[in-house]
Amino acid sequence: MRIKLSANRYGKNAVNLSRIIRHEGYHEFRQVSVSVALTGDFDAAHTLGDNSRILPTDTQKNTVYALAREHFTSSIEAFGLTLSQHFLSRNPPVSQVRIELVEHLWQRLAFDGVPHPHSFTGGGSEKRTTVVTRTAAGPAVSSGLKGLLLLKTTDSAFVGYPKDEFTVLPETSDRILATECEASWNYVTTELDFDSRHQQIRQSLLRTFAGHQSHSVQHTLYAIGEKILQENDVVAEISLIMPNKHHIPFNLEPFGQPNTNEIFVATDAPFGYITGTVTREP
Q1: Among this protein's residues, is 12 annotated catalytic?
Q2: What Gene3D superfamilies does the entry give (predicted)?
């Protein structure tokens, strides 16, 4: 029996980086978590204990910080492309670099309608994401967001589903639709203004969610993906995760009160988990 090493990679995860970008009269504050993963010819390190081709993960961490001063001045995608090029070009054993960035969003404080030059508040649960992969053939970028809390109080229904002896869920033509959306989309090019494109895609997602006459979470998920692809020819496909954060009508009848779809119990678990990928046909 022959035994051999199969797929493997290594890197540094969760390099937490905060960056002040100082402009005349105001500051930007950026906070990201960067993970680096290298794939390549590292068999000898595993089988022989030969580390001559292993770039230390501590060096990878230091590289993130050292390159941030000059290169982390715009989008997380642009910084990821810089990091991937650095690691691939300087390390011959490496055949693929994967850079994942998660940005924690901060919002500038404003008083009397005037933005404060250097004070911020946390942006809630939403985070901006990107994954940059690079080989000798070139880079690829997949961007997205996660932790985006969305809720609409009407224009959502769920009827016509199969029923058996275990079904107690009543049909409804008017319900709360709530989710914590995660989305990732693949760009067909890296020659983009990533910041403006991210905002355009995010706005399309929000506008579709708000305006869609939903017959299910699946129905709305597809509508969001379809609209984003229609409006963005630089996106090849989009994947969405939309858990159904249930808000269940509370029974007020024991208290002599009707519940006209106004009082609900918000539940954390269990919850419906809905995913889907919308892509272009060749």
Answers
A1: yes
A2: Urate Oxidase
